[in-house]
Every structure is written in structure tokens, then in C-alpha cells.
Amino acid sequence: MQLPPQVTERAFERLAEIGAGDEGQALRVAVEGGGCSGFQYEITLDRPSDDDLVLEGKGQKVVVDSVSLPFLAGATIDFSEELIGARFTIDNPNASSACGCGTSFSM
């Protein structure tokens, strides 16, 4: 059995700050083919679908579709604020390598 992805409190807090749940939306984390390493993360605000895994905290939701779920098993979804900017990040134990910007990876 694969571990589901985890979402940090900081990520849920950021979603609450931007009011994502106010419109019935959730942070959608998906994996698509492409990017400089073979796969890339697609992070958007979207409405949950029936086949999504829904992770909830602080009144907010993060959703992962059934196709992306095996690629994100055991991953941690976080929010990072640094001098170069702020963004949602993914620490993925399934990735054998990642690009410098952190948006694409290989397995």
C-alpha cells in the first residue's frame, strides 16, 4: 500500500490566506509528462472531482487526481517563502532527479 501525499500546515495556512476555499476551490497538484526532466508538476486552483484524493486541513483542500497519485505517493506538499519568491513546493521521494527550478523531475 502506497502512502498518500502529505500537506504541511504552512501550505494549508497559505491556501487560507489567499481564500482558495472561499470559492469552493482546492489546490490541485498533478503530474504531467514534459519538463526538462521527463515529468512536471502542475499546480493550480480548481474544483475537486469525484475521483480525486482530497486532503483537508484548516478548512482548505488539496486534491490529487487518480492518475497523478502513484507519482506523488509519500510526497510532501509545502509552501516556501524565500528571497527569490514564494511558491508551493513538493518534496517527492519517488523522484530520482529534479531540475533546478523544482517543477520537473524524473523517476
UniProtKB/TrEMBL annotation:
One Pfam family this sequence matches: Fe-S_biosyn
The protein's GO terms of the molecular function aspect are:
2 iron, 2 sulfur cluster binding; 4 iron, 4 sulfur cluster binding; iron ion binding
Q: Which organism is it from?
A: Roseovarius spongiae
Q: What GO terms describe the biological role, i.e. biological process, of this protein? A: iron-sulfur cluster assembly
Core domain span: 7-102
In terms of NCBIfam families, this protein maps to: iron-sulfur cluster assembly accessory protein
| Superkingdom per UniProt | Bacteria
Protein name (database record): Iron-sulfur cluster assembly accessory protein
In terms of InterPro entries, this protein maps to: ATAP, ATAP_core_dom, FeS_cluster_insertion_CS, HesB-like_dom_sf
Secretion signal, residue range per the UniProt entry: none
